[in-house]
Amino acid sequence: MRNSGEHRDLVVVGAGPAGRALAHRAETSGLQVALIDPAPDRGWTATYGSWADELPGWVDSKSFAAQSPQAVVYTPRRRVVDRSYVTFDTGGLQRSLPVTDDAVIGSRVMQLFDDHVVVEGNRRVKAHTIVDARGLRATDAPAQSAYGVVVDADLADRYLEAVETVLMDWRGAARGTPPSFLYAISLGGNRVLLEETCLAGIPALPIGELRNRLHTRLSGHGITAADIDDTDDEKVWFALRRQSGVPWKDRPLRFGSGGGMMHPATGYSLAASLREADTVVNALVNQQDPRRALWNRRTRAVYRLRDRGLTSLLGLDPIDVVRFFDGFFDLPVADQRAYLSSRDDLAGVARAMTRVVAHTDRAVAYKVMRGAVMRRQ
Asked: For 53-56, which contacts have Cβ atoms below 8 Å and span 24 or more sequence positions?
């Protein structure tokens, strides 16, 4: 399939984690690639976490900043989730996905077509396959927001109490106010991220409100504003779903958070993007359709079920959100994993969604089922 000049096997637009991973894996497999981005060497600044068992075997463990054998949730009951959780060294992750200089085109895309891309200067780059990996760009869709600070581990221990990873701490949720939870993870090197997160909202909670909530929450554990250096903070906002349409109908094919890899009820997309990069590459190497490889009947059905799950979540009041997660984390870890991590385990996802309804009280169960049949918000 290799061709010379401006004709490539694969053109990837967007050099974020999903796009760079796809380009990297394609080059590793011998495909001729172009990776197009106006600032391809710009450093990534987001914090990325993942369940370790979601990651493909080729991911370099040297790109991990920290790894915890378990995660803790408070709903408000304390629960231990027996799954290893990884926090990435963001710069290390970026460096672990090298793409050759000849493949990188530092330019802005002006037009996308099924068989070629037009960049600045009217330069055309032709390819057998074009993939748009520029992320989810919806502006009026449900969104997740977060505000976090990085503190020394000794200071964080006032809250963590020797627990390395807190996935969700819903303690303090009250009726009448949109809920948020604390997410606490080690970043390695004696550094800990403490982040107040609005899981899903229309609109998501403002950053200023999350900052106030974080300071209030931490003050209850003896961590005052004077202890925190707000210059080392993290502000997060991103859409959780597309405004319309389904990813398997996109032309050209989209990949990553904007291409259906994001879990709409959690906001996680990195591990799925890393894992599914090989699905696209293997299809191309075997001269098959990558769209069909990514989106078979099971993956389409799982995508729709999870989208319904987000609609249900958005319809719950703050206390019911906490009750929902209390029921969810009562499920066996295998059921949790099926819902959170699998793209094609239709039976497992359906079973988990059914069981979580059974594990919540009747009022919450009714709202969840009603949300599952409502139209998108």
From this structure: 53/83, 53/84, 53/337, 53/341, 54/271, 54/272, 54/275, 54/341, 55/86, 55/271, 55/274, 55/275, 56/274, 56/275, 56/277, 56/278
Number of Cβ within a 10 Å radius of residue 206: 14
What value does the mean pLDDT of the chain take? 91
Closest C-alpha to 81, from 122, 44, 55, 53:
53
What digits encode the pLDDT tens for the residues 266-314?
999 999 999 999 999 999 999 999 999 999 999 999 999 899 889 888 8
Distances (CA, A) of 206 to 41, 198, 202, 213, 265: 30, 9, 11, 11, 19
Whether 374 has a pLDDT exceeding 90, the answer reads no
Measuring CA to CA, which residue among 53, 105, 2, 55 is closest to residue 277?
Answer: 55
Strands 123-132 and 253-254: parallel
| Rounded distance between C-alpha atoms, residue 81 and residue 66, angstroms | 17
- pLDDT tens across 193-207, in order? 999 999 999 889 999
pLDDT at 120 over 50: yes
What does the alpha-carbon distance between residue 126 and residue 238 come to, in Å, rounded to a whole number?
31
- From first CA to last CA, the distance across the chain in angstroms is 44
| Cα–Cα distance, 182 to 185 (Å, whole number) | 10
What is the spatial distance between Cα 209 and Cα 150, in angstroms, rounded to a whole number? 18
346-358 and 318-328 helices cross at what angle (nearest 10)?
120
Helix or strand (DSSP H, E) at 198: strand 191-201
Structure tokens at 62: 């040297």
Coil, helix or strand at residue 305: helix
Token digits of residue 184: 């606490």
Give the whole-angstrom CA distance, residue 23 versus residue 32: 9
